Amino acid sequence: IESLEDVDETEKVHFLGIWKLVTSIFLEINTAADDPDEYNIVRRQKISEWLRMHSAWAVEKQLEVEDASVLVTIILNLSKHDIRKATEQSLVLRDPRLASLISTAGCHNHLKEDIGQQMELWKANAMDNFIQRDRYHAYELLSGKLDNVLTQYRLDWRRCLACVMWYEQSVVDPVETTIHSFLNFQRRGGGSSSVSLY
């Protein structure tokens, strides 16, 4: 840490964060040998804690320089997995339906499927044009359809990876599945071509 005294705050957060990530990745996990789901859940939790910590810092910095609407702030809070704050902000908008969906985000795959089916109905009936763009993106995020969301809100690679883990993948999927999905998103041209350290 002493060698980082002359480094600015952004680079310091990045370097220290990488060391914490290495710890999260290589930490020994003791689980029952015959239960791969338990291992995957514990490993995801470790990586998720690291992503949440870094995402919280990035969202705070982003909101300091942007005059974001409540809907954009909801999406940014979801990008750091702050379900409580995003739910409260939905209630500020007097939208209890969105608040109830956010409050259960990431809990069950069938909920994501239900939201996705509702969005398909809106699209089939040309109703999606009547929904605010940022509100629609919030629904996309909650349904695990991330391509539009991850490219619209200046999310760095960590928050993109976090959204894939928290909203697209199941809680028992291996971390490797999340990484492959994130890399596929990047190959399809998603995300910024020049990703900042933070």
UniProtKB/TrEMBL annotation:
Domain Nuclear pore complex protein NUP96 C-terminal, by residue range, is: 74-184
TM annotation in the entry: none
Q: Which Gene3D superfamilies match?
A: 1.25.40.690
The cross-references to Pfam families, in alphabetical order and at most eight, read: Nup96
Specify the protein name: Nuclear pore complex protein NUP96 C-terminal domain-containing protein
